[in-house]
Amino acid sequence: MQISPRFVAALIALAVLSACQSTQAEPPATRLFQPAPPGAPPGTCWGKTETPALIETVTEQVIVQPAETGADGAVVSPAVYRTETRQQIVRERRETWFETPCPEVLTPEFVASLQRALAARDLYRGAESGEMDRATRAAIRRYQSPDGVDSGILSLEAARRLGLVAMARAPDPA
């Protein structure tokens, strides 16, 4: 039996498509170790989240012709309306940059400490694996979201609040 090249190409396309769909569990707008934003100090590492614009369909009744009333107040002819539907941006697209611990800091020991810190706050329920897996990223997102960083990438500020990274020391007033 001869298999046509067209059939093989269709099977490959189907396999690629199904692989793409299965990897999109976390929002695709989260990226790690981006080139730094303008003005960032050299040697720092950055993450970025891109929140898409929120667009809503708005439907309104617009008066074309007002109602006519007689001298006695009776309606002679009713008002005429037209329905208008339009798209409206409810929330603008937003790009958020935040400093992250650099890759050399994210060792298995560091990630295991991160998992313990998140578990102590009842945000992580997985095994202490030392791997930055889906459960760890979801816990990071839950921890950072109230502070405006809706990302599974650990921000440097969150790592400091968790006690995982040293805080910058304030200069001595001399």
UniProtKB/TrEMBL annotation:
Signal peptide, first to last residue: 1-25
Keywords: Signal
The keyword Signal is annotated on this UniProt entry: yes
Domain of life: Bacteria
Name of one Pfam family that matches: PG_binding_1
Domain Peptidoglycan binding-like: 109-145
Record protein name field: Peptidoglycan-binding protein
